[in-house]
Fold this protein.
Amino acid sequence: QLQLVESGGGLVQLGGSLRLSCTLSRFTLGSYAISWFRQAPGKEREGVSCISRNGGTTNYADDVKGRFTISRDNARNTVSLQMNSLEPADTANYYCAADRTRDNYCSMSVSPMDFWGQGTQVTVSS
C-alpha cells in the first residue's frame, strides 16, 4: 500500500506564502503522477495542480495559475506545491494523490487517483 504524507500547512495572512510537501513511502515516486486537491467545508474536493511522472507536464486550476507552482524531486520521493499570494478563498484542507498513469500526463480529477494522503490544513486570514 502506497502511503502519502502531506506537510507544510498552517495559518498565514492574506498575501502570504506556504510550501506544501507530499512525501511517498515504500514506492518509487517516479512511477506516479502526483496531483494536489483541496476541499473547503461544505464544498466538493477540487483539483488544484498536477505533475506528470517525469515532471514534463504540469497543470493548474485557473484560480491558482501564476500563484502556485508544483515541482517534484524523484530522488527524494517528494512533490512540492509552492503557494504565493494566498487569499482567504485558498483556505481548505489540501490533499496529495498518486495516479499510476502514462508518462507526460496528469489529471486533476478525483476519480483516477489510486492513493491519497490524509491532508494538511491551510488557513488564510484577511
User: Anything to note?
Assistant: The first strand starts at residue 3 and ends at 7. The radius of gyration is 13 Å. The mean pLDDT is 95. DSSP finds no helices and eleven strands in the chain.
